[in-house]
Amino acid sequence: MLWEKNKETADQLLHQANSQFHREQDRLNLERLCKSIEDTAVIFHRIVNNTEILKTAAGNRQVYQELDKRLYSQLLMKAGAVRDMATALQDASARRIQLSYEYMTLIVGVFAFTLALTTILTSIQLDRLIRRRLEPLHDGAKIVADGDLDYRIRCGGTDEFAELALSINYMTESLQVSAKQLEAEITERKQVDDKLARAHAELEQFTRIAAHHLQEPARRLVSFAQRLQSRLPTEQLNEDAIASLHFIEQGAARQSALVRDIQLYLAADQPRSTMETVAVTAVIAGLLEHRATLMRETGAQVDYNDAPSVHIDRPRLKDIFSILLDNALCYRHPKLTPQIRISGEAKAGRVIYRVADNGVGIPAEYRERVFGVFERLQVNDDQSSTGIGLAIVRRIIESCGGSVTIQETPGGGTTVLFDLPA
To answer: What letters, b where the CB count within 10 A reaches 16 and e where it falls short, cover 378-393?
Structure first.
């Protein structure tokens, strides 16, 4: 029963194998295998029959035993043949699997190569297509960027490139309108600037002429007052006459100073020489030389070694420090020796200066007011002050993009704080 069951399984496997092997040698081995299996089945049945006969055999028992041995030997030989044929077919099947694997690997490789080649070719074609569509956009945008606002990009189709071309053309039209408007703004501004320049030039010319004509009467008043004082007989030069002549001379001098300072104020926002890097210490040293007599009389001390250089025209820089030094010396404390310290520090492209004194100081409520034209605190009877000095200082500094303020010096006095280009 076990043999029959195994034989049935072997027949099924042989039937399946019959459809799998197609090579001539494999078909021959399969036929040999089938024949060996059939021969084995025959020998096996003969062994079974002989075994049954041996159970009842008496005289010929030795013959059947010898037959049984031969049948077993034949069975072993056929089993060996079956094993050899099955091994040959197994090797053939393994070779077929290996060939199938190699063939599949080759197919996959060819497919991968084909896919890569297709991708490259597609990329090249896509790149060419995109370049062809982008060229009008690139060239047109460059033409517009170079200033030709009349140019319009031509890009047919209804894709994104065409929409982008339309957007660039719309932007160009907007720029063209804006450019025309800007040109008409600019033209109007130039006309206004030209008018302002002419008005400024006329004002400067008027200022020079007016200053000359206003200075001349003042000089004549001083000259004639001095001549009158020298030519009048001594008996006629009483106290009232001398006071009157002195008053005339002082009034003329004040008028001359007013005209001079008004002229400086009007010209304060424009450089009067080359803009350059100026050594502040050298400018201050020169100013102090012209005030040597007053410095000796008052015992004033000026510390200015920490004043850094600045970028400005030299005449206006001299005006700033001349006015501030004169104020510090003029409004000195009656009971203290004048101490003036000028220092500065560079910061963010600017130089911040401090001019500090120990004078009478300026009340907080007047520290902004004193920068106005003709504003003068009546702290003494000095008639040389015109009330324009600090206004000139502020006008110069603000024209250089800076600012100026007044603070109280620690311990008493005035500190002027301002900044100029480094």
So the answer is: eeeeeeebbebbbbbb
pLDDT at 364 over 60: yes
Q: DSSP H helical segments within 232-313, as ranges?
A: 239-266, 280-289, 292-298
Q: Among the ranges 25-29, 126-130, 161-165, 394-398, which has the highest mean pLDDT value?
A: 394-398
Answer with the residue of higher pLDDT: 232 or 82. Answer: 82
- Strand 350-357 with 339-347, pairing: antiparallel
pLDDT band at 185 (very low <50, low <70, confident <90, very high): confident
Cβ–Cβ under 8 Å, residues 342 and 304: yes
> What is the assigned CATH class of domain 273-421?
alpha beta
Which residues, other chains included, contact 369 with Cβ-Cβ below 8 Å and sequence gap of 6+? 375
Sequential DSSP letters for 167-202: HHHHHHHHHHHHHHHHHHHHHHHHHHHHHHHHHHHH
178 to 65, 192, 193: CA distances (angstroms) = 124, 21, 22
- Structure-block tokens of residue 3: 């043999």
CB of 325 closer than 8 Å to CB of 340: yes
pTM of the model: 0.52
